[in-house]
Structure formats: structure tokens, C-alpha cells
Specification:
Radius of gyration: 16 Å
Number of helices: 9
Number of strands: 0
Strand content: under 5%
Largest sheet: none
Number of domains: 1
Structural class: mainly alpha
């Protein structure tokens, strides 16, 4: 199961449409005592997949990346993402890594716009790590009840969390 979880996380970050959250939650419902292990595998697979997405955008956009973007009908979104990278690479990647925003589009666009590879990796490590470790921990602590809630309301919860995180970041920036 760990290999399948790793592979789904890897390909979801670069080319595949199905997020690994569902499989990770299902695995944890059987063996929640190893929550950290499965969260780590999912995070590692996703970060390595983000590196593949970056490589696709950087060197193979016209051959592979453009087709992936077309499949998801996100051609117009690419230029918008470019402006977001201009504003803040870390925050753009982190937001996509933590929320339901299609992460593969962000990783491919990061390579296409040739933004800092290490900023992308760092933001992916933080965002994906927080996402998968939080989900795994909540499933471990609260079991079936929270897994249903996470699955049902994850999009809303992650967006609220990112808004709060941005508000704290802005408050710190302007107050200090």
C-alpha cells in the first residue's frame, strides 16, 4: 500500500488528477498507529512529483506540459499564475500545495516561468507536509468521524486555513 500511496502522490503533483488524500485516509483507517509513516510517504512522493512537474514546465512544456494544461482546460490560468509568481513564489506554491488548487498546474508553471527551483521545493515541502501530516494526525486522533469531515469539508477548511495564514503573515509584516 505504501508504494501505491507514494506513486499516486508523485504523479498527482505533476500529471495525475486524483489526489492521494483519499487513499491515505483509507490506509489510516486500518492502521492509524503509523500515521506519521504514511504522511511522510505521501509528502515525499508529492514533493518529488513537484520536482517532476517543474522539470516538465522547464524543459518539456511544449511537448508534455501544454497537453497536461489542455486536459484540465487551464490555459488561461497559466498567465495568471505567472503574475502570482511575480508577487510571491513561496506563497503561490505553498497555497497550491496545501489547498485543493491543482498542484500540478503550479509545479509545471513554476518550471515554465523558471522561478527559483529551491523556493518551489521548499514551499512544496512545507505545504504538502502540513497538509498530509495534519490529515493523518486528525485521522489518528479522531478516527472515522474526522476522516468523513475532512473528506467532505477539506476544500473549505484548507482555504480558511490559508486565509488565516496570509492574514497572520500580513499582520506580522505590517506590525513589525
Amino acid at each position: 500500500m505504501a508504494v501505491a500511496l507514494f506513486l499516486i502522490a508523485f504523479f498527482e503533483a505533476s500529471v495525475f488528477p486524483i489526489p492521494p488524500d483519499i487513499l491515505m485516509i483509507a490506509i489510516l483507517m486500518v492502521g492509524a498507529e503509523r500515521w506519521w509513516w504514511y504522511a511522510g510517504i505521501t509528502s515525499l512522493g508529492s514533493v518529488l512529483g513537484a520536482m517532476l512537474g517543474y522539470a516538465i514546465g522547464w524543459g518539456f512544456y511544449h511537448m508534455i506540459g501544454a497537453r497536461i494544461v489542455e486536459i484540465y482546460h487551464l490555459q488561461q490560468t497559466i498567465s495568471f499564475i505567472g503574475t502570482k509568481f511575480g508577487a510571491n513564489v513561496f506563497l503561490t506554491v505553498f497555497t497550491a500545495a496545501f489547498t485543493p488548487i491543482p498542484f500540478k498546474v503550479i509545479t509545471i508553471a513554476a518550471g515554465l516561468f523558471k522561478v527559483s527551483f529551491w523556493k518551489v521545493v521548499f514551499a512544496a515541502v512545507i505545504g504538502r507536509g502540513m497538509r498530509y501530516f495534519a490529515i493523518a494526525y486528525f485521522v489518528k486522533v479522531f478516527g472515522v468521524r474526522v476522516s468523513r469531515l475532512i473528506y467532505k469539508y477539506f476544500n473549505i477548511l484548507s482555504i480558511v486555513f490559508v486565509i488565516l495564514l496570509i492574514a497572520v503573515f500580513l499582520a506580522i509584516k505590517f506590525l513589525f
